[in-house]
Amino acid sequence: MTTLDQQPLWQPDQQRLQHSALNRFWQQARALSGLPLPDYRALHQWSVNEPEAFWNLVWDFSALQGEKGAEVLERAERFRDHRWFPQARLNAAENLLPRHDDHTALISVDEAGQRHQISYSELRVAAGQVAAQLHDAGVRPGDRVAGYMPNRIETIIAALGAAWIGAIWSSCSPDFGVQGVLDRFGQIEPKVLFACDGYQYNGKWIDLGERLQTLREQLKPELLVVIPGRGKASNVHAALPWSEWLDAAGPAPAFAALPFDHPLYILYSSGTTGAPKCIIHGAGGTLIQHAKEHRLHGDLGADDVLFYFTTCGWMMWNWLVGGLQSGATLVLYDGNPAYPDASRLFDLIDTEGVTHFGTSAKFVQAVEKAGIEPIKSHSLETLRVLYSTGSPLLHESYDFLYQKVKPDLLVSSISGGTDIISTFALGNPMLPVYRGELQCLGLGMDVAVFDDDGQAVSGEKGELVCRTPFPCCPVAFWNDPDGQRFQDAYFERFASLGMDIWAHGDYAETVAHEGHDGLIIHGRSDAVLNPGGVRIGTAEIYRQVETLPQIREAVVIGQQWQGDVRVVLFVVMAGDAVLDDDLKQTLRQTIRDGASPRHVPAVILEVPEIPRTVSGKIVELAVRDIVHGREVRNRNALANPDALAHFANRPELAE
Description:
20 helices; 7-stranded mixed beta sheet; single chain; alpha/beta; AMP-bd_C; 5-stranded parallel beta sheet; nucleotide-binding
């Protein structure tokens, strides 16, 4: 059992207790249920015991636009077959454009200091132009529209335009190499591709022209619309220039009224065992979950300013876009968050009046190590909430935030993932913050921690699960006609015990407090590489490494290191090849260009052989266990278990 400091680092004042949106919702829940609901634990229990009443109230409280229908939940035998609001008809873009006024909707800033902004009324016009052009080009509900884009205003305009007519939006960050993009978009065959021809990162211009030509040839989209990375013109062959394409639009079509579970987004798994899984998220589930998280758990209102540092290849981008439903202003940042120095994003808080600031645990550590003390160098007057995700926020990072950033701050460590496009545990404006903990379990999410026997435990580590259905459960996987891959991904873990529950793959622990339960995330329970919260699978690394003739084979793991994860690559050399500094640099550059710059190995080591199963599969989990000094229990399943000795007690991994 984990022992934590029981003195809270922060407590809500009377203003938050009495005037938060959660307090107003809580009062309505009491009136609706006829129950006293004296504390958050009771409110949460009601939300999972009475899902129809709870989610119906969330719809009304959040003022979702559309026809709700009479039925909230159509129950089914299997967890995944439950249908929420089966008679509803709504449109995601209409809900993400709740205002028609000149209030600022989006502010876009890049690392070079260029700034642009757009109002809600202007955003509605621009998204309507995209919708009109897509519709006139023959794009229909269910067609895929993809974006290979930085985090900027045009990306959100394109996504809203696609949602306006019921197309499915999917996006990749431009720091993914061609193969990484093809592994994703190649599966869903987008009819339209929006792309930027370049972007700046860490003071350098990255030209994407060559990549776009290759993607156009391989993906063969019917339309390629290019947004210039700088200036107003682009030289990409056979591409439609963004501004001219928009200017030629006719009147905006009506918002497409679609079922609650009509696909809105396709996101991607890490690709651990092959090509990334294409996860389809429905419009209604995404909207209602984001509305709950932003409005109730984050206390985000129409006069607030929300920022989250993210790329368009991470689900936090979709989560950030969901903030529009609250009528808030979103701040977008593109570039290195520490350029020209680690105080860059804190500058943004002051210049843009950010009230809700989101980042990664790794960024918080980097700021601390850089010796920056924002409490002395910045005002931060507007800042009320600081979100952190990607990896567990260190105990010491909590101390740093309260001592060196701002004492009166709701530090909201959140955890969920691509699979649910949201969170299972997150912040709460009416609860204390304890060192090392996520404040609470999300309303409507029947979260628990199970031991290996499928029993719920408190104060013990185990598997994070969700016991009952929730609206943001994915609709399906793309190209999974019988649904077996979907079933295996989330429901296989406890199936042998006869349990049909969602197992999330997190190693976690609940902590009981008076009136509520906190949560500690101890890391992932699978082999996904997750440095700084940016997920990628081992198969994607192998595809790059094995293009080099000097490398016969490789295994890659994530090593827990200084509160985060660092990537460690082990290679078996081919023939007389030598793993010298030049080859290490070549390996790193190959992975940077073909997969992702965020997953370049920190350490590269040579081994004579790699452990495999009898069927020939590389066993990353066994290697990772050995590196971390843990016992490998499944040696009998290995064809060459003695190979594990080559990974044990390597002095290079203690440096």
